[in-house]
Amino acid sequence: MTLAADRHLGNQEFAIEDITTGVHASGFGQVGDGRSFSFHIERQMLVVEVYRPRVTGPVPQAEDVVAVAEVSLGRLQAPGAKDFLVRQLGRESRWWESVRLGAIIGLGKLADPSLAPIFAKYTVPGHVQEVRIAALNGWLAAAHDDPKLAATLRELTGDRNRSVRLDAIQKLGKLHRAEDRELLEALQKDPDPNVVVFATDGLDELKSFAPATAESR
Length: 217
What we know:
This protein is of the alpha+beta class. Among the domains are: about 1-60; about 145-210, Leucine-rich Repeat Variant. The protein is about 45% helix and about 10% strand. The chain has 9 helices and 4 strands; from the N terminus they run ββββααααααααα. It has helices at about 60-75, 80-90, 100-110, 115-120, 130-140, 145-155, 160-175, 180-185, 195-210, and strands at about 15-20, 25-30, 35-40, 45-50. The chain has a 4-stranded antiparallel β-sheet with strand order 1-2-3-4, with no helix packed on it. The longest helix has 16 residues, at about 195-210. It is globular, with a radius of gyration of 19 Å. The protein starts with 13 loop residues before the first strand and ends in a 9-residue tail after the last helix.
């Protein structure tokens, strides 16, 4: 069902262009800055994914359809999903890394520890921040105890990309490694107030899983 024809949108507005209703509702639309988005219901939650910036035109674009299909493939853990999605990582998108992003999110749904080295490749600068963060999400889901993940997160707490940096700080606390306490405490003194908040949350997360001391037993 198509809901919205071409129209001018303000920066704070969005339009739904196509929607399928029901228990598994899904659809596509556009936000005011020209980005397209998709949405679907997953486990009674609304999941919204916003795609490439500064590209106008009707949605879904072919690349967006592929990206959403990749996520669904991983979520359903379909036979052959892993090999297919890994191959998709090498597929370039015309405007943005939407196909690669969809493949990484789909692989993350598999929670397969053998994928850790693949996720690691996409956490580095040179990829859009959404791809880097999705790779960290996938790595965390697949190999929570991987020492290389912990090392990468420590390095990324100083990343030049603010979103990646904040995500790394938050995830570092979720690893519950006592050796990261000193770093998180140091980040509480950062001039960026958001870094302070994320570091404090990470430290609280770490402390909540700290083993009891002899005095507290």
